[in-house]
Every structure is written in C-alpha cells, then in structure tokens.
Automatic annotation (TrEMBL):
This is NADH-cytochrome b5 reductase. GO terms for cellular component: mitochondrial outer membrane. The chain crosses the membrane at residues 32-49. It comes from Oidiodendron maius (strain Zn). One of its GO terms (molecular function) is cytochrome-b5 reductase activity, acting on NADH. Its cofactor is FAD.
Amino acid sequence: MFARQAFRGTQPLRSQFRRYATEPTSGGSNTLFYLGAAAVIGGGGYYFYNRGGNSSDIKNATKAATSQPAKAALTGGDQGFISLKLDSVENVNHNTKKFRFQLPEADQVSGLHVASAILTKYKGPEMEKPVIRPYTPVNDEGERGYLDLLVKRYSNGPMSEHLHSMVPGQQLEFKGPIPKYPWAPNKHTHIALIAGGTGVTPMYQLTRAIFSNPDDKTKVTLVFGNITEEDILLKKEFEELENTYPQRFRAFYVLDNPPKSWAGGKGFITKELLKTVLPEPKSENIKVFVCGPPGLYKAISGVKKSPTDQGELDGAILEQLGYSKDQVYKF
C-alpha cells in the first residue's frame, strides 16, 4: 500500500526516502516499504523453535545455560575440517533449501561470530580435487546443537548440486569460522545493505545481531534484488523487523520479473534508486555492505580482488554517488 502512495504522494519520492535515510530516530508507523527496480540473480529465514516445559524447567535451563559458556564446535585456527551430519532438509522455494546440520555435541554452539562464515568441502568419486565453498549460516550464533544453511541450487554448481542431493544422515565437511567484518554495537550510525540472491545471508546475520541487541541503535537500509517475488528469501523475517523497528529498518525489494500485483517497477538496481534510499555519503559514520553475484559487484561496488583485498570501486555506482572505498565493504 505504501509503495503506491509513495508514487502518488504530494512529496517527491526522493524527499520521503532521503528523510528516512538521514534523520535521527523519532518514532514512526508500521508502514512497509517496497520498491521494484532490479535484474539480479535471486535467491537466503531463520528458524525459531521452542522446547516445551514448565516454568521451573525453563528457569533452571536458563540458569545453567548462562552460568556455563557454550563450547564452540568450530574453533578455527589449526582445527581443519570436521564432519557434520545432516539432520533435516526443508524446501524453501523452487530452487532453494534449508539444511540443518548437527553439531558434534548437543550443547555446542557453532563458534561463528558477527560477521563470519564457514567453508564446506566435498569430493565426489569422479572429482580430482574437492570443491570448497563458503556459506553464512542463517540461525543465531548462540543457538546450540546445530547450524542452518540456506542454499540455492545452481546448474553446474558442484557444491549446491551436491547439497541438494543430500538426505538426512549423510555427512558434510565444515571449517570455520572465517572472519569477515568485525561488528560491534553502534560501530556505525547507519548501514546500507545491497544484496542479490543468496548474498542476503551475511546481511541477515548482521541485521539479526543488531536488532537482537537492545543496546545497538544502528539504523539499517536493505536493498535486495531478485528475479521473482518467490525468490525473495527471508522476506518474512525482514518484514517483522520492519514492523517492529519502522524508524530504524527499511527493506526495498527489487524484481526483474515482478507479478502483476507488484506495486513497484522492474529493471536493474540503478544509480537513481540508490541515491534515493541510501544514507548520503557525507553522512557521519556510515557503511555500505555489498554481497551477491559477480554482476552485482561489478555494477554496484567494483569487484572484490581476494579475501584480503577489497579492490577499488572502479567507477561503479557507489563511487559515482560519492562513496569512498573506506565506506564500502564487499562480503
């Protein structure tokens, strides 16, 4: 509903969105924001679960959990790869599944921190070398006993095809955590997340950490490009955050092939769109995060050279808009 009003309102679209991007928090409504404009490969929800029990059981369990630090399954360093058993598989959409892997011990946590990822390794019988791929789990880092991966199947993608062929009980090799961007509460006043497809999973990890910490007041703007509406992963979770924190979180969904009912437009993530919805480059203490397929990096932020070299902005859209290399992080 808002999207239609935004195009017909008395104030220009840029004025309405820019005000959100630059003004401090001052309360607000539960309005949802949607905007269409992209041609980015689509595809990353986290999982809530509750165990039954009376109040005494819950209090005792909580006390025990808080009195003893959880042991990490993945410790990095020289640990190497460890084998984890696939516990369950959930179909998310036409080409994406969620895989739950059991940690070696039921009371262990994964060992990941924000922001970090894991490596998976698989060597098929006809493969000369194993394939290794990074993923960002979508469950909370403090949850015990398992980790969840949200994986889109790509044609001729050896790891994604292998994962999609797996059944509960089979094993997969894991290593981590792989450090990414070191986050601390209120490290930035406002962050912008530009994602395509399953590139949304590290964005979700970061967003979840921010809004689960009552002391963290960071504002977050997400621009998320996909092919179809069905490809928008974690949409329910992002909408819940948008309703709960309307003055601190906004998500702009952009589609290549929108349905007839889609309120926005379609096309690429454009310079004009980002200029309209992102915090201005001259704003104090902001950061722009980018993650998605190669075409997205090339157009938006310039390509990442290596895990240790972020590369230049190379005249991409963010540089054209006035953002500096130091203001941009490429997952």
